[in-house]
Structures are given as C-alpha cells and as structure tokens.
Specification:
The chain has about 120 residues and is mostly helical. The chain is built from 4 helices and 2 strands; from the N terminus they run ββαααα.
Length: about 120
C-alpha cells in the first residue's frame, strides 16, 4: 500500500492511497472485479451473431457469440466495423437482386392464371 502526502491548490494536505485492501470495506480488487464482470456481461448481451446455417452444429451459435463478445471487450469499434461491412454487403445484394414490385406482382398474377 503506497501512501504519500500531497498538497492541492488550497494548501491542505491529504493522503493518497494507491491500493485499498478489502478486509471489511470495499477494496480495490472488489471494484476491479465488478467493473470487469459488468463489461463482460454488457458485451455478451449486446452481441447478436448471424443466424446459424442448417449444417451448423448446436454449439456454433454459442461459439460465434463468444467470439463477438471477446471482440466487443477488446474494442466496441471492431463490432461497429463488422456491422458496417454487413450493411454494405446487404445494400449490394439489394442492388443486384432488386426487382420492382409491379413486375413481381404481374408475374405472380400470370403464374396464378396459368395454374403454374
């Protein structure tokens, strides 16, 4: 435990304590544990992996969620970049595959009339 005497701008002295033991009060390690657990739980709850494919095993969704939570703990910016990449990919897919609604409805109507 490091104790030092310091003065502030009003010339009063106080003691700085670097590390507080957790004997009967809340110590430094207790505060660190609660902060780490809170950050981990927030990253776990806030990540949403993609829907698993039909060929994935039951644990693949959990592994994907764990990997995303670890990335979120390292830096939230990583998850933001992944989300931006998925948004750009979705916009490209819509641009390539987009068919006007009127054409789709008329084709459907023709197929229903023909009995196809």
């Amino acid at each position: 435990m490091a104790l030092s005497t310091a003065t502030n701008s009003t010339d009063s002295t106080y003691q700085l304590t670097g590390w507080n033991p957790s004997d009967t009060t809340r110590g430094s390690i207790d505060i660190l544990w609660s902060c780490c657990i809170t950050i981990i739980l927030c990253c776990w709850v806030s990540t949403f992996p993609n829907a698993p494919s039909s060929s994935d095993k039951w644990y693949h969704a959990w592994v994907d969620k764990f990997n995303l939570a670890c990335l979120g703990c390292l830096g939230p910016g990583f998850l933001f970049i992944i989300a931006l990449g998925q948004l750009a990919s979705a916009r490209r897919s819509v641009r390539v595959c987009w068919v006007p609604l009127a054409v789709t409805r008329s084709k459907l109507r023709v197929q229903l009339v023909r009995g196809i």
